[in-house]
């Protein structure tokens, strides 16, 4: 796993993690009725 992680990191950016992967990967929110405050 260590070698794979060095070649192809398995973690996402902190900003993408906070915003949600649906938005960063697909360009849309999965639950638009839930608003982050």
SSE layout and pairing:
Blueprint: H1 2-7, H2 14-19, H3 21-26
Task: Summarize the structure in words.
The protein has 37 residues and is mostly helical. It has one domain (1-30). It is built from three helices and no strands. It has helices at 2-7, 14-19, 21-26. It starts with a helix and ends in an 11-residue tail after the last helix.
Low-confidence stretches: none
What Rg do the Cα atoms give? 13 Å
Indicate the proportion of strand residues: under 5%
Derived structural class? mainly alpha
Question: What gross morphology would you assign?
Answer: elongated
Number of DSSP E strands:
0
Mean pLDDT: 78
For the record, give the distance between the C-alpha atoms at the N and C termini, rounded to a whole number. 37 Å
| Whole-number count of domains | 1
- Give the helix level as a range of percent: 40-55%
Largest sheet: none
Number of helices: 3
Topology as a string of helices (H) and strands (E):
HHH
Task: For this entry, give a set of tags.
37 residues; mainly alpha; elongated
Short description:
By secondary structure, the protein is mostly helical. The protein has helices at residues 2-7, 14-19, 21-26.
